[in-house]
Amino acid sequence: MQWSVMDTPIKILFVDREQAEYLLVGDLLRQVRHTRYELTWCDGLEYAMDELMTNRYDVVLLDYHWGAGNSRDLLEGARAMACKTPILVMTDEMEAELDREIIRSGASDYLIKGSIDSQLLERTVRYAIERKAAELKLARLAHYDILTNVPNRILFRDRLEHALQLAERGKQAFTLMYMDLDGFKLVNDSYGHQVGDALIRACAQRLSTCMRKSDSVARIGGDEFTILLEATASTASIVNIARKVLREVTRAYHLNGHQITIGCSLGIAVYPDAGRDADTLQRHADMAMYQAKQEQGSTYRFFTEVMNEQARRQLLLEDELRQALSGGEFALHYQPRMDLGSGRMVALEALIRWHHPQRGLLRPVDFLATAEDSGLIVDIGYWVIRRACEDLKRLQSRSAAALTMAVNLSLRQFTDSDLVARIAAILDQTGVDSHQLEFELTETTVMANLDLVSLCIRTLSQMGVRFSLDDFGTGVSSFIHLQRIPLSSLKVDRQFIDNLTTNANDRKLVRSMIAFAHSMEKKVVAVGVENQAQLPLLRQYRCDQVQGFHLCEPMAFDQLDAVVGEVVSR
Question: What is the assigned CATH class of domain 10-143?
């Protein structure tokens, strides 16, 4: 039908048994000015769904009554298949119940035969098209990631549930992959969020390009993506896809004049071996990704039953840690730090121990990683600070020695907005001089979120609290970054001290590190002093303080009286 100055016609699928109705609607449409219509007639419901799902039409006019039956199944089928074409239902007469039934089944609107004129028909068609376009736009905003235009977490979950239903019916395996970019935060910090956003978009594009049409890529958060692979036949095919993803994602990016290379880690969970429900599959894919991140370089890891057992043990350990905190099972041991000039103890490092009811005395290596991952480290950390300050005050009441108490702080503790206030409260309540409290940080902690950490450190430093950098020489911090935070001392890592007497390169390195620290007006503490022969060399290099088993092992508070004031052998 041709009746307009418009080049693009509105295409209408007319589904009705009666040719007379088709001819009548065609005549009404010809009366509409300024709009061109193309009307296609379909006289059978059995053919209508296939024609409807071709997406060739802008709107459908559907007769509701078909003899003893009706077109409700067609309406509901179109809705279930996410049909994007608006459907207008035509009825001989309208009843309230029928009205609700039609709309509930997925119709956009309805028209009553015998009451349709060209103006009403044109307006109803136009409104249905505009309303459907608005609905699709809102649905896209709700289900697609704005930055990358790939499905978001909500749509991904729907597709995962759908994949589970298909897999259960067809007894077929499918694969869920979790992917995380390695070092993305460093890109944001170094080049800015505009480049970071461009990197995320480019990464999503590469992932979408290298997937099959049946597969699905989604962005579920910051730099995390999921990949859903349907009908994966073998482990070999999964591995090939994983390698392809790693190869594509880690190729150099050219963004805003910068060449950027980034790594990625991939966790793989295969249905049904890694889980039979959505939550389990997601959790196991995430666990496998975490395992991959522990490896050097970009790689992938499959979820295995061994990992599942590790997860169960971790959950049990988290519960036990909560019980330990509330039940008073933690204790502190203290390792003295000696001044090389006077040979006297000048500081204590507080080291947490756990009196486990079944496993005996546990060291931090046995449980701190779980405490960190679960967030329990925040409450445990405040317990350590308070107990260390209380013990320092008790020790001061029995000795005239002026000691510093050193306590380790983790990155997770810096994310607590109350950190500064709670530390100030602990100092006030225990009566400890803030200048006698020292927090030890690792380079990894500092560099993970330099802005946040440095802000907290500067505030606490103004209160008088001191800070030392542990594991100095093993991290990735630059001299410029170290100057941004008010450190009072640097602790040379034990790996440089171990071979001090036998390796000339280590001796040169330690000497240079000490000289560098002194040039920045920082004191130097050598950690891991295990034999007498190391002490003369450290004195020669003008190291300030030492700590290690040769001098004194960590001990319970009640044992400290015996070493306070003791002079270490020269």
Answer: alpha beta
